[in-house]
Batch of 2 targets.
Target 1
Amino acid sequence: MTNFTGEVRIVGAGLLGTSIGLALTKQGIDVAIASKSPKSVDIAISYGAGRAVREDDSPKLIVVCVPPQLTAQIVAEELIAFPDAIVTDVASVKAGILEELERLAAPTDRYVGSHPMAGRERGGAIAGRADLFVGRPWVITPNSKSSPAGIKVVAELAQALEASVITVSPKDHDRAVALVSHVPQLVSSLLAARLVDANQADVNLAGQGLRDTTRIAASDPELWVQILEANSAEVKRVLESLELDLGNVIDALANVDSEAGIAQLRKALRDGNAGVEKIPGKHGTKHSTYAQIIVMIDDQPGELARLLTEVGEIGINLEELKLEHSPSAQIGLVELYVVPSAESALIADLQERGWRIA
């Protein structure tokens, strides 16, 4: 937590705007919600994300949470309307927004771009969550004119939301998110699109692998068109590299009777292992540093809650948790991740309490 204080104005009452408002009002911070959609404002206020705007509002910080194609114009308007406020935004592409602000001759000394690496497949105020940003990276992208005071205020906002602050340039941000966010969205969507014309009996065989890789394919297409358009050059570079990799795998599958073909498949899979190892887990540690325990639970209300309660009673901290469940199965598989030193004790205690370990 941080000692963030002062009035905050949030422009846009969608998922991110509502979630920021919920988290801040929970801490007693005065939040005003503005949006061109009165219905969204009503929902956000009803949820407890803030209050309606007033004529005498004097915000310390303005957070613009609107679609990417509108962000620069709204940021410019807010900078003019509130000459004493610092303005940030949460758009997922930064360089183009800064270029547009400079074209509009906006006072960019009071503008500090930012982007929380958090979201959900569902959008809108109704999907808002106060804990959406906890433990997630919040990227701050100052421009050459951003004031130190403004940068500090935006960092304090992220810290108040319990996010992890990372500072990079707008261009470096766009290059990074093309790889870690924008291309994954496209790959997920393209894979899910293969299911449209698939035999339903085949789709019914889906396991957790398909669910994991297509989860984000449920995201809003119109929003993603804007994001991909704004970061098209960086996304294209990553996709071109991926195209080469796919070509190599296709060639290998056409030559599985040869040592070279098998070697190419093995390399692709091992490179994937190496890539996963680079993805940070809790506290920046690698996921593979944790021990995995798979617990089988009955498919009935309250079983997952009972398991987690008993893990808490045992006194062992969970580092990660995943749940796998098939519609046709009568059990669920709960993957618990703990530090290796706690693995044996947790297994023994859970078995003593009657839990089945896979």
Target 2
Amino acid sequence: MTAHFITRLGPYSEARARAERGSHEWRYDAGFLPDSAPHRVLPESRLSLVTESLYAPTGEILDQSYWVFGPIRTPRLYAPPPGSVLEGMFILPEHALCLFGVRPDELTDAILPQSDFPRLRQPLTEPSRHQDRLAIWTARLLRATKGRVRANALAERAGVSERHLHRCMSGRLGVGPKALAGQIRALAAIERADQSARPNWADIALTSGYSDQAHLSRSLKALTGLTPTALHAERSVESEIFKTAPAL
């Protein structure tokens, strides 16, 4: 298996929701306008199954490819060729072991053909190893609680040490419980802000599980490289990227 690492491309967790588009789906349409602004891709622990199509201005499909996008570690800008349309389905990191046969962190910032993963053609089954099941259980509970449960509480409920829980998650999903919880909260806050032309950041901070607005600002700056106001302004001008709520 040969991984091609493309530094300006990664999975998406973006923007304005459409009623017909589920929370596990995303779409990017580059269009044909000249000098289009590049799109900021945010850090994301989920993977994506992607269909990439290249269209002529007449609507004719010139080329089509099928990819697996791995998790993305740092924010980056992406400017696809004119006529590119990417449609993807998010894959939770806790499903990657069964679906792809590799740990998610082995695919960080990587893009590979779907043909490299024969397990994609097989039914999804739960893993048999206890450590794998523990990592999956933890990730699911973090999503169900929208990232608001502490790692020590998770470890106590699972009957293991916090260090053991972190080791299980990091070794199998490529992200520990604290980091995953923080990402879930941050992406949920970004999605809430997307729904308003003038977000009430203090209210968004409280409803997303932050102690105050300053806490939210620090988290978003660390995740995206921008302040909440700058990030919202940048995302508000995008019209062809359909933002979807994080899969919780």
